[in-house]
Amino acid sequence: MEPRYPRIALTGGIASGKSSVSRLFGALGVPVIDADQVAREVVAPGTVLMAQVLETFGQALRRPDGSLDRSALRQLVFSDDAKRRQLEALLHPAIRLRSEHLAAQSGGPYQIHVIPLLVESNAGKAFDRVLVVDCPEALQLARLQARDGCDEQQARAMLGAQVSRAARLAAADDVIVNDGPAADLAPKVAALHQKYQALAAVAHPATPGAGS
After folding, report:
1. Which of 23, 62, 21, 30 is nearest to 45 (CA)?
2. CATH numeric code, 1-31+108-202
3. Residue 176 contacts by C-beta under 8 Å, 6 or more apart in sequence?
4. In terms of C-beta distances under 8 Å and separation of at least 24 residues, what long-range contacts does 195-200 make, across chains too?
5. Is the pTM of this model over 0.90?
6. DSSP character for 207?
7. Where do the domains of the chain lie?
8. pLDDT tens digits, residue range 137-155?
9. CA–CA gap between residue 179 and residue 209 (Å, rounded)
10. Where in the chain does DSSP place strands (E)?
11. Using CA atoms, how far apart are residues 47 and 207, in angstroms rounded to an integer?
12. Could you tell me which residue, 8 or 158, shows the higher pLDDT?
């Protein structure tokens, strides 16, 4: 049986800083499996799944370069629960399968799985720990407007489509508060890295005489 390395689910609200935190873990040599990146791969040009998405939601979603206009797709399903569920039914099985394949290939000592909608999909039980990147809602709104060029009303609507900050924090085993300069994140990630390495050591004790 293949060893199962501890899996840490990393989640957080939109524009909370998940990508920054995951990059820092990656820089420490930790395998990072990002559900958003996997979602891009499974609908790459020429895939069966992209053809299904275009057939279901319209050929206008094909960009001039042949890729899927994911931004337009998000806007299409954003305020329509039926369409959103239809899209999730198409994408989520493929995303899970690809993520499991990457996890099996990636090894350890532990793994970070970036899952923006972890709490919404009630997927936390599949992981050893849940790490939430958190920041005040006002800061989320400001970051989101600066990042996406949207107005406050649009930004609030995007936040409103996710679970509440309180619900996300209630699901957390660990929390990184990202309410300051970007440089503040590195020591917070380093501290959790030590913690997760200790967790991995308990899960997979070193075999006596098997190297240093």
Report:
1. 62
2. 3.40.50.300
3. 17, 21, 131, 132, 133, 134, 185, 188, 189, 192
4. 196/6, 196/8, 196/30, 196/109, 196/110, 196/129, 197/109, 197/110, 199/6, 199/110, 199/128, 199/129, 200/5, 200/6, 200/108, 200/109, 200/110
5. no
6. P
7. 1-31+108-202, 39-106
8. 999 999 989 988 888 888 8
9. 45
10. 7-12, 32-34, 111-114, 129-134, 174-177
11. 43
12. 8
DSSP 119: T
State the amino acid at position 18 in one-letter form: K
- Indicate the pairing of strand 129-134 with strand 174-177: parallel
Q: Tokens at residue 146, please?
A: 């600066």
Question: How is residue 42 written in tokens?
Answer: 């499974």
Supply 67's token pair.
Answer: 């890729």
**95 and 42 Cβ atoms separated by less than 8 Å:** yes
Q: How far is CA 111 from CA 80, 120, 167, in A?
A: 34, 21, 24
Phi, psi of 153 (to 5 degrees): -65, -45
**CB 27 within 8 Å of CB 188:** no
Give per-residue pLDDT as tens, 13-68: 999 999 999 999 999 999 999 999 999 999 999 999 999 999 999 999 999 999 99
Per residue in 92-131, pLDDT (tens digit) is 899 999 999 999 999 889 999 999 989 988 899 999 999 9
Write the DSSP symbol of residue 29.
T
